[in-house]
Amino acid sequence: MNSFAIIPAAGLSRRMGEPKLLKTYRHKPLIQHTLEAWCLSRVDRVLVVIRADDHALQALLQNIGQRLSFNIVLADAPPEMKDSFWAGWTHLQKSSELSGNDVILMAPADMPHLSSSIINQLLDFHPQHPNSILAPEYQGRRGHPALFPEIVAQAVSQLTSNQGLNALWEQFPHQTIAVDTDDSFGDFDTPQDWSDR
Q1: Which of 42, 66, 78, 104, CA to CA, is 20 to 30 A from 162?
Q2: Beta-strand relationship, 133-138 and 71-75
Q3: How far is the C-alpha of 60 from the C-alpha of 34, rounded, in Å?
Q4: Across 42-191, where does the E strand assignment appear?
Q5: What stretches of the chain adopt beta strand conformation (E)?
Q6: Given this model, what pLDDT does residue 17 score?
Q7: Which of the residues in the chain have pLDDT under 50?
């Protein structure tokens, strides 16, 4: 089994009003915190999906890529997170790296407190429930990242225009894993989110 992380980073940051992934948070670009968590985990390969016309983010990622190991996938302005996920998944299919029983993990790119430990917990738990979507849970609240078996990842193309990735949770077997913190659950969508941290 191989494990792949797909990081959807092709959004327009409309609620933030500026390119949030480039903004500095605790002395680093926001997206660098997220990438470090993925790269410190046991995930085998990390893919970042960005818009082909987002030259500033591409330049930043190329710089960060001198210290961290990940791949950049360029996409034509995917409007929704599921489109970014599909762009990353299609890239994997074309690369012939999939074995048939792999897993795909995903969390938004704007999660600077993403936990490598929680990522590893999902990977450890997967063999017990190989056909289930997995997600961490803290005090009844489901969070990120999510782990998708390969068969679930393939089903993303069947989602309707008004369905997001969350719809897969109801369509397939799923399990939550109790974790002891919700530090990695929050993302940064608005200026208020930024000021609250």
Answers
A1: 104
A2: unpaired
A3: 14
A4: 45-51, 71-75, 103-106, 133-138, 141-142, 146-149, 174-178
A5: 3-8, 24-25, 28-29, 45-51, 71-75, 103-106, 133-138, 141-142, 146-149, 174-178
A6: 44
A7: 14-17, 194-197
| 150-196 pLDDT, tens digit each | 888 888 888 888 888 888 898 999 999 999 877 666 665 555 554 44
Token pair listed for 119: 């990522």
**Which amino acid makes up residue 44?**
D
Which CATH architecture fits 3-196? Answer: Alpha-Beta Complex (3.90)
Name the residue among 85, 86, 87, 104 with its Cα closest to residue 44.
104
DSSP character at residue 140 = T
Positive or negative torsion for Cα 181, 176, 33, 197: negative
Distance from C-alpha of 100 to C-alpha of 178, rounded to nearest angstrom: 28
> Does the predicted model carry a pTM greater than 0.85?
yes
- Tally of CB atoms within 10 A around 76: 10
Give the separation between CA 164 and CA 85, rounded to whole angstroms. Answer: 11
| Among 68, 83, 98, 125, CA closest to 3 | 98
